[in-house]
Amino acid sequence: MVERWRKETHCFNFREGECTITLKDIAILTDLPIDGDVVCVDSTPPPKVVANMSGWQHFIWTVTGLCPPEKGDHDADGHPPLSKGQVSITWLTAEIRCKHNPEFGGIPLTEESSERDKEIYARIYILGMIGGVFFPKKSNNLISNSWLKIILGSWDDMGNLSWASACLAQLYRSLCNASARAVKEIDGAMFIVQFWAWEHLQWIAPKVDPDKDWGPDHPLRHEAYGCR
């Protein structure tokens, strides 16, 4: 699919003609919202407000309740928890797992947990979805700290953003960059390309169970179309 991509037209070039992934495809396959404000991230480093923390360290602590060390430690993938304006998703998930997993001496997250703990867990989960699913980098582990400024916003503000258009724009950019002759890696939400190809290119689509009933009573009937 990458080899058939033409960055001049943002289309896949087939013998039968050209076709492309549209905003409607993103909305149907992922159920991400189309309507809303533009997703715009601010990469300006926050000012230093605590003597023993850098600006980003304090900002990450405010969002997640965790303070990543800038030197010395490395996550399970060999990346530092905080480096060059990026935070390690592997480090974040490992820390939050230790915090709430009884096997590691943590306190389980329950309905009786504080609102602060629930909010932190939810924001880290959303951050993982952004950095690991919809806007992954080539490392598939590091996420720009700029996303933290959106995650720190109100739930209504995050829900009122046009995430589908941001995901499509990033996907187009990733395909354009990867189509260069010397490039050997790609980032972005490649699962969308796979789902889209399965829906539109019948000769590579997986076989669908004819006995599978996708009626109104199916548990995935009201989920994103890609869940099928």
From TrEMBL:
InterPro entries annotated for this entry? AminoTfrase-like_pln_mobile (IPR019557), MAIN-like (IPR044824)
Q: What single Pfam family name could you report for this chain, choosing any that match?
A: PMD
* Domain Aminotransferase-like plant mobile: start-end pairs: 1-210
Q: Name one GO biological process term.
A: meristem maintenance
* Name of the featured protein: Aminotransferase-like plant mobile domain-containing protein
